[in-house]
Design brief:
The protein has 580 residues and is mainly alpha-helical. The protein contains 18 helices and 20 strands.
Length: 580
Amino acid sequence: MSARQFDSSESDDIIIIIAIVEMEAAVQAAAEPHPLRPCSSVHLWNCFRILPNKRGPPVLHNRLQKKGNVSDTAVKDKAAESKKEGEEGVISWPVIDTDQATEGTKVKENNEDSAANQKAKSSKESEPSRLEAVQQAFRHAWKGYKDFAWGHDELRPLSKSYSEWFGLGLTLIDALDTMWILGLKEEFEEAKTWVATELTFNKNVDVNLFESTIRILGGLLSTYHLTGDTLFLDKAKDIGSRLMPAFHTPSKIPYSDVNIGKGTAHPPRWTSDSTVAEVTSIQLEFRELTRLTQEPRYQAAVAEVMTQVHKLDGKLDGLVPMFINTNNGQFTHQGIYTLGARADSYYEYLLKQWIQGGKKEDQLLEDYLQAIEGVKKNLLQKSSPNGLTFVGEVSHGQFSPKMDHLVCFLPGTLALGAHNGLPDDHMDLAKQLMETCYQMYAQMETGLSPEIVHFNMHQGSNRDIDVKLADRHNLLRPETVESLFYLYRFTKDHKYQDWGFEILQNFNKYTKVSSGGYTSINNVRDPDYTSPRDKMESFFLGETLKYLYLLFSDDPNLISLDQYVFNTEAHPLPIWPSTA
């Protein structure tokens, strides 16, 4: 509900509407099936048991009251969830209300449980329903893809059609390991059949090296490790080999685009540069391909990239520019430093390569630690009036309080580093940034984060976050729920699960399409006219729903972070044994 004030003439209507919504929610909850709890092993299908229906309503943290830039839509119209023309296909589900028994608003006098134990008990009881909610969301998204986009790259759910990027079934491949982890056997088997009978890389098509590596190669390698089925390893070998011409450059810094049918590669049409994030975020996958195939060329190619970037001038306290030239191997467009687009996953892969290789590669660790210190020194600030810690950008010496949603990978990465023995203050910073990323959702009228925010730093500001008109879109991105997963896995603080469930509810409320699928939206500031974009990115199934499921699971062995490291598309790859 909007934070605006309303007059007394509206109160009777509001009371009636609230009563109707609560009644419908109660009926819906009573009609829901019993949840399933998956067993701890991701290698076994038939290990489910029916649990009593303990559907615990979510424990939600109220969003901060918004000041200033708020919706002026009438409360009763919002409660009725009226739809604008052109939005008929988007379902608006009411947010599940918190239950008095769950919240413990009134407890019996002889209740011996402490408040902390009560909260933990509440979250534990709600675990099956939250896991099932993710399974239901996946099935709904998969239904849209299967009905209208089967075998194609991405679903356009409103027009009931599809879009092609590479023509390689990106959504299906991205979702393979998600289906396995979620225990969706039927969906997995039909997808596997398509991979076996329809997927071919012998196509005259240009693909982006980075995107095809993290989504296709990473997805196939991950699914091979989870299932043991060599079908996926064979496909991974095929695509990996076809991507290698990208490294045939004068500098050994790879081109961005590869024709996987012709075996040729080239930079994008508009420049001879590649982005730093793209050329330094393919290492986990190619290193693993070498380990599995015993062909050194894959690891050698990506290791050369890291060695060259390590030696380059033009960094700011370990922070890298966004572009690198494929002819001379030098940074270009220097002076802009960000943890957002075009640079983000460079920092992520420094840490994750070090973990993947058994914490033996000191150069990677040194570059990572130096970069984090560079973030603290140059990019870290606090907002006004509430002092949210955020990561901005520097452009030619000038600080900008601009933060991409993409930067919300950082809390999880910092927490992962702290878990692996890095300084304790990394975890402290992770928690602060996690709060900020949550507030990027909570302070929006839809409860969904925009793509980019700007933080207020001036005394006297009445709100911490501003959003420009061009930045109000939400693409169903995973970075915040990814970091929530890491923070919950390492701290066991149930508020991170609660925040994640609130985000899932708002995805259901504002982006779910009745005929199947979820859509990105243009406007997170207006709950009554979100302006759907008619596109479901493959990472919604490959990353967002996967991380939500892992967040809601209390099983630390479900993709153990001591055994697996996730690539930047949420595909888990094994940490190498000490003898590797």
